[in-house]
Each structure stands twice: as structure tokens, then as C-alpha cells.
Amino acid sequence: MGTPQAGGAPASGTDMLMQFLPLIIMFAIFWFLLIRPQQKRAKAHKQMLSELKRGDHVMTSSGLLGRILEIDDEQVLLECGEAKLRVSRGAIGGLLSGKGGNKDAAKEEKK
Among 86, 77, 75, which Cα is nearest to 67's? Predict the structure, then answer.
């Protein structure tokens, strides 16, 4: 009659910490492996979009390669071969290195 039952005793602070420790560790792993790299990529993409200028060779997110003819806050006019396409600035997926992978555009610049 005088012995307290194990279920009736209040949980100590260390017991509560040990219960939440696996959740804290999982969140830290998700942060460093998933969330943080995604934020870094988004920040780099946003900076690349802000630094675009006329004459840059770019690739759209759909895979079109072209050279920027005109650029404003919302839209970009691309020259893709003989066609001129107006695309959203956010649709630019990446900047091509050097004078670009577009060989026709590189030939035209030499002339």
C-alpha cells in the first residue's frame, strides 16, 4: 500500500529530452541534407536571374538554348536560331558558360 506505482511518478527532464532526442536528430539531418542545399540553390538562381544582361547565352528550364536580345523585369526576348521567343524571366534555367553551347550564335558573333 505504501509503494508508489511506476506510472504515477512524474517524468523527469532528462526522460523528456531522451524521448525527443531522436526527433531533434532527424530534423537536424533533414535540415543539412535537404532544406539548406535547396535554399542555397534558390538563392544562387535568384542572383543569376538578377545578373542577366543582353548577349548572354542561356538555357530555359524547358531546355531551349538562346541568346538574350532584350530583357526587362518580367520577360526576356531570346534568339533561338532564326526564331525569337519571349519567355518569362523565371523560365531561365541557367547561364551557359563561355560564349555558350549555341554554335550558330557563336559563329554570328565572329562575323
Answer: 77
